[in-house]
Amino acid sequence: MKRLNCPHCNNPTISWLRKQCLGPARRINCPGCASKISVAWKNSVPTFIAVTIAVVSIGYFGAEIRSLIGFAWATTLIILFFVLTMVIVGIYHHFFVPLEVRARPRSERVAELFGSESAVD
Ligand SMILES: [Zn+2]
Fold first, then answer.
1. If you measure from the C-alpha of residue 99 to the centroid of ligand 1, how many angstroms do you get, rounded to a whole number?
2. Distance between CA 107 and CA 7 in Å, rounded?
3. Which of 47, 66, 79, 109 has the most CB atoms within 10 Å of its CB?
């Protein structure tokens, strides 16, 4: 599967699945340059809204369960709706939630501290 470029070192080090599982509260290390990578907060807001709607609607459909047929119907709707939401969220996350650098690698910050950017690779 195609790997995504690190926003810091521009090397394709982040796997697609890793980015999809990444929320703005989590950070991952770039295996290439060791900087901390996350996704932008503001772009993640629609993802939270969609997941909240999905969970609330599961409760709504669940309340419709009064008979065996109703149960089968509600279960089918819940599964369909949930899968659909996850697909939409996945597509949105893939195209509209960019990776961003949260913290540059320690070696780089140390190098800056001593006034020589190129001292440490
Ligand atoms: Zn990197």
1. 11
2. 17
3. 47
Distance of CA 89 from the midpoint of ligand 1 (Å): 25
pTM greater than the 0.70 cutoff: no
3-state secondary structure of 101: strand
Token pair in block for residue 53: 């709607």
* Cα of 33 from ligand 1 centre, angstroms: 4
CB-based burial label for 39 (10 Å; 0-12, 13-18, 19+): buried
Is 7 within 8 Å of 33 (Cβ atoms)?
A: no
Which of 52, 14, 57, 51 is closest to 32 using CA atoms?
14
∠ CA(1), CA(31), CA(114), 5° rounding? 150
pLDDT tens-digit map of 15-31:
988 998 888 889 999 99
Rounded-to-integer distance, Cα 78 and Cα 85, Å: 10
